[in-house]
């Protein structure tokens, strides 16, 4: 429901607020193991606090005197990081701190973070926590329990349309303005698009973005007809894009690409992709071709600084739905294994002090492997 966009705006506002104190934030991302666990969140929060207040390094150095200790990946590392974090928050010389975590629901061990919020809220009254999450029953139950214990306010609910209406209105205005400039809309077309987006958005920034992408290549004379045929759900819009890929002569290749990224646990660089390009019908070494193919896989994939990843958690959920078993029909166990068997290519979890993580070989049914919980 646009939680991340709202928190980005909140961070920007807080950074320009005088006398705020220290501000630290972390944006979780379920599709990247570097951003989807409690250890990564805590390391990120600590880093930003120390970066703003270098004197806080005194709380970090005693706990990381050996080089290998600086990579906190296992359970023992979490305990060490909590000690560092608590020491920073209870430092008597520090001002008020505002700590933000976005997409708590995308953290694989969110219970650790919820417990941390409870402990620090009780012990550190000068610390303000701001957390966003999908409003799932299990997460709401955990946060409600914390709120009751320490008297926290859970604040506004992003499920309430009124809480995001102003942001949605402005977002729609900017998007329609861009479309008007790009496609030379007349006033009637511009107003029709704006009314449609405002009426059907239901507080969902991603849905607005996907609809506007559909309209970018739609002639002005066909806009009204296009709007009448667009679904009002994100999954429905993904379906339109998937059908478009099915009609392409390169569909078999697109299926392989989407299958790989639907099971990869972290982003993959273009350079890494071409190393194992035999998976993609022998396109070895041709980065330009790869990049063009990947761009056509939007909105499922995104490319940033020559690194490719799933664009949004909902895209991964869509690709792994039962009815898309077809994606894995042309992908063999051997095709998937290169993307799961090395640290750079998608699947391996970070090494721990107890030895490198071991990756299981994929079973014969690639689709079953993609849906198997690791």
Please state roughly what percent of the residues sit in beta strands, choosing from under 5%, 5-15%, 15-25%, 25-35%, 35-45% or over 45%: 5-15%
Strand order of the largest sheet: 1-2-3
Largest sheet: 3 strands, parallel
Q: What is the CATH topology descriptor of the largest domain?
A: Rossmann fold
Commentary on this structure:
By secondary structure, the protein is mainly α. It folds into three domains: 3-150, 3-Layer(aba) Sandwich (Rossmann fold); 161-231, no CATH class; 238-370. Helices cover 49% and strands 7% of the residues. It is built from 16 helices and six strands. Strands 1-2-3 form a three-stranded parallel sheet, with helices on both faces. A three-stranded antiparallel sheet has the order 4-6-5. It is globular. Keywords: Repeat. It comes from Lasiosphaeria ovina. Residues 1-134 form the Nephrocystin 3-like N-terminal domain. Residues 342-374 are annotated as: Disordered. This is NACHT domain-containing protein.
